[in-house]
Amino acid sequence: xxxxxxxxxxxGEGLPGEGARRRRAPAAPQYVLxxxxxxxxxxVAAELSGLHPQTLRQYDRLGxxxxxxxxxxxxxxxxxxxxxxxxxxxxxxxxxINLAGIKRxxxxxxxxxxxxxxxxxxxxxxxxxxxxxxxxxxxVHASYRRDLVPYQPPTPHSSALVVWRPKR
Length: 168
Fold this sequence. Notes:
This protein is mainly α. It has four helices and two strands, in the order H-H-E-E-H-H.
């Protein structure tokens, strides 16, 4: 076997009727890791954030940083949670803000983010409506009858008289 040979290739090659068929390894599940994916247990999160695990538990109880939970109720922190823990620590130590103030700051930042997302959504909706309106307007203009001539008022010095007679 070569390093490029798939796992399980060559199994059952000596059996009758099995020579042409090869087994394939089961496909790996497609799992995408994002900033929001909860992957760190509390000890790793504490080490990454530079805080004591008990501090992380306290922040969770206060609602400052709320990690996801496993089926067994264990905490799982995401990369975003780690950044938020660092920010809470910075505000507390460097800026001297108490935990109630930090909680309010986080709530307001979340509210601002939600409002910005809503504004973006409304702008997109408005642009879509404007595009639809322009398309409808273009359709109306395209439907105009081309045999009609727009009225032009006579010029002040003109003495021309136009007589219209319908065709019979």
